[in-house]
Structures are given as C-alpha cells and as structure tokens.
Specification:
It is built from 21 helices and 20 strands. By secondary structure, it is of the alpha/beta class.
C-alpha cells in the first residue's frame, strides 16, 4: 500500500472514529476465569501478585470458578509498554487498531492465540505501543494478492487524489462567465469561488480559468468516499485474521534441524540424573529412526548444557544453534529462562523438558510448549474426566487422619457440591461389613483414600478385598487413586485387580500395552540393555516428544501449531493436549489419562480426547 493510501485512510478514520477509550484509564480490567486457571497462573499472566488480585476480589483466596470475573489491577504504565485490554461489546479488530493508534498486524502479532473464533466480549488481549501507523497498511501489504476485490476498490477510492477542480478552461474571444458556467453546468458563484481574482477583474482572451466540480458532483464524490470508508470499517474480523495468517505462512526446509539441550553431566560419576538425560536422548534417537522410515529427515544437534550454575548463553549464540527449527530442553530453571529469551528472539519453538512443571516462561513466550501440566489445569482435567466416566457416583472418602490430605479431594468435593452431589467419609479402619452396608446398588461406589501415600493404601487394600468378596456381584465398587499408584502397582497388582482400581495420571506406560512393549523391544535392540525403571520413563518421554513434534512440523510446516493436537499414533507414555495459557503466551499440555486395572484382570489406558 502506498504512503498516499496510508495518509488518506489514517486521516479519515481518525475523523470518523472516537478517541481512545476512557476505560483504558481505569485502575483495573476484567479477566474471565477459564477452566483450570488458579490465582497463581492468572497473576503470572498479568505480571501482578496473587495478593494484588485478592485485594480487588475478596474471597478469591478461597476459591475461584470457571466463568467468574476477576478485577485485575493495571500495572503502572511505562512509555512504550504493552497494556492489557478486555474486549467490549461492539468492538472490532479494526476499531481497536484505530482507537489505539496501532496497526491490525501489530495486534495480531502481539496476540498469536487470537483468532476470529475467540475475538469476543470478555477476551483479554495485549495492545502494543502506539505507532501512529495506518491501521491496515501492513496487513494489506503482507496479504498482497489475497485482498478481496471490493477492498481493493475501496482503498483505491480512498487513495485517489481528487483534484481541487474538475478541469481548466482557456478563455476564447468574446466568451463570458455566463457562457462558461452554462457550458459546464455550474453556477456563477461556484465559478467565482474557484477563480476569486475575477471578482475584481475582467475575463480576457487566452486566460486559463478553473472549472470547479458542481455541487451535485461534489455530493457524489463525498458519497463514494463515505461508501469506501464504510467498507473499510466493516471488514469482518475473520477476513483480517485470515489475511494476517496467510501473510505469515512460510515453508520449513525439507530436512528439519532439532536441538536437544540438556545436562548430560559428562564430568560427573554416573548418576541417576545422568542416566535419565541419556535415556531421553536415546528415546529421541529411536523417534528419529522411525521418522526416517516414514521419509522424514531430521538433523539432530545434541548440546550438553552442563551443571545448573553454568550459563548456556554461549551455546545459544554459537553457530551450533544456527538454522535450528525446534529445541527440546533444557533442564534447569536458569537455562530455561535463557533458552526462552533466545526462542522469543528467533521465533523458534521451545519444548520444555518434562521435569519442569512450573516454568513461568510459558506465560510470556508464545513459542514455549510445556509438557508437564500445571497443577490447577491438570486437576480440572481430572475432574472433567471423572464425571464423564462416572456421571452419578457415590463417593466414599476413606479418611487416613495421620497422613497428609491430598489436594485432589478439595477440588473434587467442590465439584460434587456444584453438581448437587454429596459424599460420605468413613475412617480407614472401618470394618468390611460396615462398608458393605453403605453401598448403593444403583450407583458406582467409588472409594478414595484422602492420602496418596503407600502406607494408607497398604492398610485399606485387604479391607476392600473383603468388601469385594462379600458384596452382591451386581453392586459396582472401585478404588480411585493417584498417579503414585503406578509406582505401587508392582507390589499390589493382585489387590488392584481384585478391587477394580482406577487412577489418573499425565503419563503411563506398561509392558502389557502393545505400544509400550514394542518400544521396550526397540530400546533393547538398539542399546543392548533394558531401560532403567523410573516413573516416568525418560526414554519414553524423549520418544513421544520428538516423534510428535517433528512429525507435526514435517506434516504441516510452520503452521504446525494449529495442528499440534492431531493424533499421529498411540504414544508410548505421554499424550498431548495443548492449549495456550493466554493470547500472547505459550502452550501447556492438559493431557490426562485414566488407568483401569479391572477385576477382569485387564489393563486399560483411557484417552478421553480420542
């Protein structure tokens, strides 16, 4: 778009639209709580403290619910700083651009999670610093030939330099003002306004005079410009988003380059941590072998980040990181911060090692993918799946008073209350016949120990076995537990089967499952040894992460983010269900499995998202 178009549109829209909203001067803005969000994640999203939010929202320290509106204090604005804005009724992407004196493209670039689907009332976005750019110039320039024809015509109309006068006329012998006005269909007043010198002098042969537009023509021109302006104002958000998306599409190279950044601790004696890092790398190698068989070539760079106290900036700025398309790692908090800064600067996806679950970088960097699910998001997924699997449960909490209460139950009790359901609480030492007496023959009777420890589990399992044997076979009972149960399973497998055990986890692998058995065999063939026994398995982590991300990038190019939840295969251990934490941040993995060790002696890994 030419500078001429920019100037015309900007001048017109500033006349047509109102000044920046007064609401931006308020001391707070509104955030609508999404499912799984806790005070910590909301506070970190906006760079405030939890206490800042609590002060404006008394009671939020006790509980917040999805759909609840919270007042978020505005930080003191600095010159050139981003600011947060809650989308109001009637606002469009174009109007926000004009009112805040920033281009549409800049708003889209600052909010990569924003789309035509979620640009709606209550959505919080960041507004970049004002630049006084034309609102649409950069979008239209980047979109090039993708512009709709009517938009092209409208911008051409606005850009046309309408001359001040229709034409000029050279006076002939004996011509009069009356005759000229009659010939051109204008009034003498219009003629004299265009030629003010003739109000005090005579018309002479050979003189060049201005012929103005008639009032009718001026009205038509004005209407044409107003129509063009109305079209520009009414361009749908969906069109603007699609134009910006199309402009950002680029191709990835035929051979992807991936970097693995992690501490291999090569200077140390062999440790468990070193073995985990090595096995993660070996899992990545197995994924690359499979991708190669599928015709996908990957150049792998493996870089040792050293101990936690070492800086990795030297690695990140070295030639080794040139042309890298994706990074897996690193391990330590300081290294993650440094890698995130590099990722943000270079626009390279950063898949954070699963050992880290509370990395704050995900709230500010749109390129970050966090594999481990933050606790608040994770628990909400568990509750959603719980009531999907058991829509009408009779929950019986087994109280082990001397052990720490698991926070899972706090949220479950709130969810039960919200659904108008109650639960019973009994002591962990309650006799089997007393437990059998409170079972409901019409519902799923679900026992949940209020501690995830192994000691209370060992105490209650014999009792639940007796309950299973004495109850009517038609009465459904089960034990619902925690991710730790996969660690306890080798010691309690028979009991787990008999009492019909369920537990939730973000990861699970078991050699009784085909994909896990196949992976274990591949690992033994490739490295001539068994994987170390760990929960989770870092070899399986490396395999699942590398295969999923590289397969997705090779299939969809740099637009892979919109397909990141596509299913390519059954994972060995870790599933993927990514959601952005906000419109300007990165992705967290909200995947949760339910594992069922049934009284029919079968193992089932339930994926609710397939």
């Amino acid at each position: 778009m030419t500078g001429r178009i920019k100037n015309v549109i900007l001048a017109l829209v500033l006349l047509v639209l109102p000044a920046a909203q007064a609401s931006s001067q308020e001391s707070y803005f509104i955030h609508t709580v999404a499912q799984g969000q806790g005070l910590y994640s909301i506070a970190r999203t906006y760079g405030v403290t939890e206490n800042d939010i609590i002060k404006l929202n008394p009671g939020s320290e006790k509980v917040i619910r999805a759909g609840q509106e919270l007042k978020i204090p505005r930080r003191e604005q600095q010159v050139g700083a981003l600011r947060y804005h809650t989308v109001q009724k009637g606002e469009t992407l174009y109007r926000l651009s004009v009112e805040n004196r920033v281009s549409v493209k800049d708003i889209c670039d600052a909010n990569p999670g924003l789309s035509a689907e979620n640009f709606k009332i209550g959505q919080v976005i960041v507004i970049p610093p004002a630049t006084d750019e034309d609102p649409l110039a950069s979008t239209f320039e980047a979109a090039a030939g993708n512009l709709p024809q009517e938009t092209v015509q409208a911008t051409e109309t606005l850009a046309s330099e309408t001359p001040k006068y229709r034409t000029t006329h050279v006076v002939e012998r004996r011509e009069t003002i009356y005759r000229i006005c009659k010939d051109y269909g204008i009034t003498q007043a219009e003629f004299l306004d265009a030629n003010p010198e003739l109000k005090s002098s005579k018309l002479r042969k050979g003189m060049t005079v201005n012929i103005p537009f008639s009032s009718t023509e001026l009205i038509a021109i004005k209407e044409k410009i107003e129509d063009a302006m109305r079209h520009i104002e009414s361009i749908p958000d969906s069109t603007l988003f699609s134009l910006n998306d199309a402009a950002q599409e680029t191709d990835l190279p035929d051979i992807l380059t991936a970097a693995v950044l992690m501490p291999f601790c090569l200077d140390d004696t062999v440790s468990v941590n070193q073995k985990m890092m090595v096995e993660f790398y070996q899992g990545v190698l197995l994924a690359l072998e499979r991708l190669k068989d599928e015709g996908i070539s990957v150049n792998l760079k493996v870089l040792d980040t050293g101990s936690e106290s070492h800086s990795i900036n030297g690695i990140l700025t070295s030639d080794k990181m040139k042309d890298v398309n994706i990074v897996f790692g690193p391990r330590y908090a300081q290294h993650i911060t440094q890698a995130s800064e590099w990722s943000l600067e270079h626009g390279v996806p950063l898949v954070i090692l699963p050992a880290n679950s509370n990395t704050d970088e995900v709230f500010d960097n749109p390129n970050v993918f966090q594999i481990n699910t933050p606790q608040s998001y994770f628990m909400q997924e568990v509750y959603n799946h719980f009531f999907k699997q058991f829509p009408n449960p009779k929950v019986i909490v087994l109280d082990a008073e001397e052990y720490n209460r698991n926070p899972f139950l706090d949220g479950l009790e709130r969810e039960l209350k919200n659904r108008g359901m109650s639960y019973e609480k009994i002591g962990i030492d309650t006799a089997p016949d007393a437990i059998a007496g409170i079972l409901d023959p019409t519902r799923d009777n679900i026992f949940i120990i209020n501690s995830s420890g192994s000691a209370p589990l060992s105490t209650i399992l014999p009792t639940l076995q007796l309950v299973s044997r004495m109850k009517d076979p038609s009465v459904r009972t089960m034990l619902f537990g925690y991710p730790e149960y996969q660690i306890y399973a080798p010691d309690h497998l028979e009991e787990f089967y008999e009492v019909n055990t369920w537990f939730y986890s973000s990861f699970y692998t078991n050699n009784m499952l085909q994909e896990a058995a196949s992976f274990g065999a591949s690992f033994r063939r490739a490295f001539s040894r068994q994987m170390m026994v760990s929960y989770p398995s870092f070899a399986a982590y490396g395999y699942d992460m590398a295969y999923h991300f590289l397969k997705c990038m090779a299939t969809y190019g740099n637009g892979f983010e919109s397909h990141i939840n596509d299913t390519f295969d059954n994972p060995v251990q870790t599933g993927f269900k990514f959601e952005r934490v906000n419109n300007w941040g990165g992705f967290v993995n909200r995947k949760v499995f339910f594992i069922h060790l049934s009284d029919q002696y079968t193992v089932e890994k339930i994926d609710f998202d397939r």
